[in-house]
């Protein structure tokens, strides 16, 4: 007999058996012994009693389950809903694409072999830092070609999200550094463009230090931030493409004459710089000023195809 049966049953076992016997009309044979039919009826009564016990236990168990569910339901209604995480995102999963969709998936894809040689407008000559004025002039040209790093978003457009370091997702507010626009538009920075900005920052800072001017354009903290930004980009990319010296060990560089499989930077630049969503800026600092003072160009100027692509 199970422990539950002992708890629910009343009286000693002999009494319960007598009750089972008494519940069945007994018939005896000529010798006064119960017949086979009587024995079967007694066994059936015992089985029925056990079934009644298990049925009662079944109902009690379900009653406790129902109470627990009601308790959990009301308790859960007082707590916040679980936060969405990066695992809940629905996007292409391709490295470098905007999982928010502000910049549509496919811009910059498919990957293609790309080589930026000495004829590319952004190429940095290896003797560049030997001439202070030449170095600054070249960096100014890069900044003019690059021009902006942001994309407009209207007040009625959905705000993008950001992934926090713990993997949860929250809203990312846009910004506008100048007097508010009448239409209320604000900006989001495009990560790749910010990384290019950091190239300019480090180049300018190195120009000043290499020339031993004891001067600086940027704070040490900003330079460190830019180095961290580029390190983040390198580690995020985790580029596994192999390299070697094509002209013999230490004859040239380990990247010489080797194209990379890349997204299309020019296509991304063209999309972001489109008049419908792009921002162009100009330096309004007084002539001879060491520090740039940028201001938006409104209305948006007419641009050539090369300017849209960041090549002129």
From TrEMBL:
Signal peptide: none annotated. InterPro entries: UstYa-like. The chain crosses the membrane at residues 56-74. GO terms for biological process: mycotoxin biosynthetic process. Keywords: Membrane, Transmembrane, Transmembrane helix. It comes from the Eukaryota. Pathway: Mycotoxin biosynthesis. Belongs to the ustYa family. This is Cyclochlorotine biosynthesis protein O.
């Amino acid at each position: 007999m199970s422990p539950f049966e002992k708890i629910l049953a009343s009286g000693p076992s002999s009494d319960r058996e007598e009750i089972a016997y008494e519940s069945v009309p007994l018939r005896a044979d000529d010798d006064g012994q119960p017949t086979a039919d009587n024995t079967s009826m007694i066994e059936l009564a015992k089985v029925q009693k056990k079934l009644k016990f298990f049925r009662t236990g079944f109902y009690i168990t379900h009653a406790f389950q129902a109470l627990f569910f009601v308790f959990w339901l009301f308790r859960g209604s007082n707590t916040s809903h679980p936060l969405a995480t990066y695992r809940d995102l629905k996007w292409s999963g391709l490295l470098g694409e905007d999982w928010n969709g502000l910049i549509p998936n496919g811009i910059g894809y498919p990957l293609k072999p790309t080589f930026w040689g000495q004829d590319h407008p952004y190429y940095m000559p290896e003797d560049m830092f030997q001439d202070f004025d030449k170095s600054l002039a070249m960096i100014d040209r890069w900044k003019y070609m690059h021009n902006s790093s942001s994309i407009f978003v209207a007040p009625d457009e959905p705000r993008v999200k950001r992934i926090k370091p713990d993997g949860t997702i929250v809203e990312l507010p846009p910004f506008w550094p100048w007097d508010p626009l009448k239409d209320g538009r604000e900006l989001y920075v495009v990560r790749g463009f910010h990384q290019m900005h950091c190239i300019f920052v480090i180049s300018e800072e190195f120009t000043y230090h290499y020339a031993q001017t004891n001067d600086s354009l940027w704070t040490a903290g900003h330079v460190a931030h830019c180095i961290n930004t580029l390190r983040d980009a390198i580690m995020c990319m985790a580029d596994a493409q192999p390299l070697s010296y094509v002209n013999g060990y230490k004859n040239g560089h380990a990247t010489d004459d080797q194209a990379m499989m890349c997204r299309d930077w020019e296509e991304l630049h063209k999309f972001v710089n489109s008049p419908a969503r792009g921002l162009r800026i100009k330096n309004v600092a007084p002539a001879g000023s060491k520090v740039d003072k940028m201001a938006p160009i409104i209305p948006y100027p007419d641009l050539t195809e090369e300017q849209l692509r960041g090549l002129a």
